Structures are given as structure tokens and as C-alpha cells.
Amino acid sequence: MTIRVLNPTSESVIATLNPAPRLTSLEGKTVGLISNGKEGTAGFFAHVDKLLRERYRVAEVVLRIKSNYSAPAEDEIIDEAKNWDLAISGLGD
Fold first, then answer.
1. 51 in a domain, yes or no?
2. In total, how many domains does the chain have?
3. Of 45, 43, 25, nearest to 35 (Cα)?
4. Where are the extended beta strands (E) located within 17-66?
């Protein structure tokens, strides 16, 4: 009798990515907030917006809401995020 063992790992080579450099300050920066669009995120992101502006003196807070909470962000949001200094993604119910 032959026993065959399968390897469930990916056979492709995974590229190693370095994280983006850490910001030294949020002052004057543009921060993007990506919401999954569920009801619980509205109050959360409103509070985060207020904190970012008052405490950390960010220049601009941009809120974008995904059209489908269980899918990745749309290409338009990802393209726009390339112009932000920082992105925060959140979810809620």
C-alpha cells in the first residue's frame, strides 16, 4: 500500500516586503479612514476624526466607505490612499 503525503503550503515564492517608514509626527499630515460601511463605524470614525484633528493636528482627514463590507476596498479607494500619509481601516457592527 502506498501512502501519499500532500503539502498544503503554497508552492509560490513569497516576496518579502519592508514596512513603510514610521511617521515621526501626524501634524500637517493627511490621514485616510477606510470604513467597512457597517452602522457601528460612523460614531467610531467621527471620534477618530476629532482626535486626529484636535490632539495630533493633522491637516486633513479623508473618510471613504467601502461599498461591500466583506470585500476588499475598491480600486478607486486604494488609488486615492496612495496620496495619504497614513491609512486607518476599521470595521464595526
1. yes
2. 1
3. 45
4. 30-35, 60-65
**Cα–Cα distance between 91 and 7 in angstroms, integer?**
34
- What's the Cα-to-Cα distance from 84 to each of 54, 67, 90, rounded to whole Å? 19, 20, 16
**Backbone torsions φ then ψ of 87, nearest 5 degrees:** -125, 135
How far apart are alpha carbons 22 and 19 in whole angstroms?
8
> What distance in Å separates the CA atoms of residue 30 and residue 35, rounded to the nearest whole number?
16
Which run of H or E residues covers position 57?
A: none
* Rounded-to-integer distance, Cα 75 and Cα 80, Å: 8
What's the average pLDDT block by block, 10 residues per block, for the chain (93 residues)?
A: 83 80 96 92 92 98 94 95 93 73
93 occurs within a structural domain: no
> pTM for this one?
0.77
